[in-house]
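Reopening this ticket.

The earlier resolution said the output was attached, but the attachment link was broken on my side. Pasting everything inline this time so it's all in one place.
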Amino acid sequence: MSLSEDYLHHLIAACWFVLCWAGYTRYAHAKGKTTPCLASVLHLYREDWMRRMLLRENRIADANVIGNLERNASFFASSTLIILAGILTVLGASERAVSLLADLPFVQSASRGMSEVKLLGLGVVFVYAFFTFSWCMRQYNFAAVLVGSAPMIGERHVTEQERKAFAERTARVISMAANQFNYGLRAYYFGMATLAWFINPWFFMLVSTGVVVVLYRREFHSDVLEVMVYTQTPAFEPAKEKNE
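Inline output:
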């Protein structure tokens, strides 16, 4: 195999990876508009949450829930920085990393330059994840401000139409933050797939396809989605009085 053919295989694998990631993101966004999925169903629950929040005098619990969601995004953003630091460390010792990979079974030999390209690609994935999680944190901050500015029950000058519009607007902001968190998690999924690139470009393509299948099943055909869309309520017959 010539050097040009070797690079061509890696280029095909990288293009397939980008196609899987971008294609599934676009497909999930379009299909979610017409088909129940985790994102669309959770948005309906968020609208119910905000409508019920406007009926409560004490909104501390609602603020705590948004704070917990923000902390989840903060945890992943911090973890992403640690991962990026590890990638930069490996880049500084690329020769040793190449020698270690060469000793592993089923690993295709690669030059130092190609190994650095793979590490840079992995770094780009997690840089994207960091920016996504940080933007998610900011949007949850915006949602917390909206909850703090929610009209109280006793405010007579606020109409029901304005309360309904406020609930929908706040739920939409929370859903936008949740979507950013979802994009960050997808970056982690595809970042794990990028590790297969160090073994073999064809295995990299196979794992990228497998990630798409896993994401699709979890978002559109998972058990938790079925429970949230429809949960049958058991019918209980009234207990009959015992004759003494």
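Reporter confirms the inline version is readable. The two ends are 93 Å apart (CA to CA). The CA atoms of residues 66 and 183 lie 18 Å apart.
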